[in-house]
Amino acid sequence: MTLRGRIFLATPGPTNVPDRVLRAMHRAAEDFAAPAFSGVARSCLDDLAKVFRTTGEVFSFIGNGHAAWEVPLVNLVEPGDTVLMPVSGRFSHYWAEMAEKLGLRTERLEMDRRLPLDVGRIADRLRADTEHRIKALLVVQTETATGIRSDIEAIRRALDEVRHPALFVVDAVASLAVEPFAMDDWGIDCALTASQKGLMSTPGLCFTAFNERALEVAESCRHPRRYFDICFRRGAMSYQWFHGTPPLQQIWGLREALDMLFEEGLGEVVERHRRLADAVRACVARWSEAGALSFHAMDPASRANGVTAIHTAPGIDPDAMRRSARDTYSTALGAGLGELEGRAFRIGHLGDLNEPMILGTLASVELAMRRSAIPFGRGGIEAAIESLALADAGVEAMSPARTTEPASLGITAA
Ligand SMILES: *Cc1c(COP(=O)(O)O)cnc(C)c1O
Fold first, then answer.
1. Model-level pTM?
2. Tally of domains within the chain
3. Which member of 88, 141, 224, 303 lies 3.0 to 4.6 Å from 175 by CB, making a disulfide possible if both were Cys?
4. CATH number at residue 279
């Protein structure tokens, strides 16, 4: 079957790369030592600090989010050191596994997969660590496998309340330029992300931000490292910033993507994601009324604005539905990951997206569900339109996602 028209990419990464970004990348190779290029590269790193909202330093590596994970693990802690890692889904699980492979004593706190990170349990563990053996606490803001956003500010407060000196490291791969994020205000020592999610760029670059304290720790950290050594990268030449040949075209693309984010305004970017995510949730709430589908995230307030994970009842094959969405209706969705494999599908709604793209995606999912004979409550698209129209009118508080929620959780509204 020949597919015509645009492919709808509704995976939670990679996300749509705007034409402007692709065009900006269509350039001949050049002398990377010339000031023209190093100026652009420097401006990208400095502007990324603004996106992270830090006065610290940003480092870029050729690699994906998995590469970014390794950076704090080899720059801030040494083999034999203890790190605390709350595990709440496939991504935090793999990050913890990486820490272990790198020789760190990795204490996992297994969390409820359907709720945001339990701050009380994190605080209890830190409080019990009276000798301060835990050198770093590493958490994921939006766990992309579950579509759940945790409260990073609350975790910082917990560290402060128990007066624990552990470094605070946050994975913002699925949340930077999607959700509110304020590295310095939230007392985050190191944050990381990748190019292909909220930053609307091609996959292949990742970024880590270090504050003053983390930079100091890195300077004396004896963990063997070279490519990922941030200290080596703090020189004056772009050759050094990238530890070798810079990814020229990708940097030009990133420059354009950052320009687009600043033109829109970071606050407006976050607001747009919330508005579009509300529409998705309004639709999913309606779909859920037939009993075969449900939100994975139990707490409505923690439902991420970048991705929604939807459970399918036993006997339903979400992957067959996803295949027909992709192969017949040109709409790529995310699979259930980890313990959700074969039991859920995910709609990614982050990056370069607007109302018609969201509505088109939701409508394609309905088509694919009909083809797969998955029962769903009718009126989901109506509800999404209603949600968008209300948001337009500035009546966000009446979002259908919120008003229908108490009933579907079995809670009676007061
Ligand atoms: C996508 C993602 C990663 C991994 O990024 P890759 O580029 O696929 O290696 C890590 N953490 C989170 C939260 C993610 O969403």
1. 0.94
2. 2
3. 141
4. 3.90.1150.10
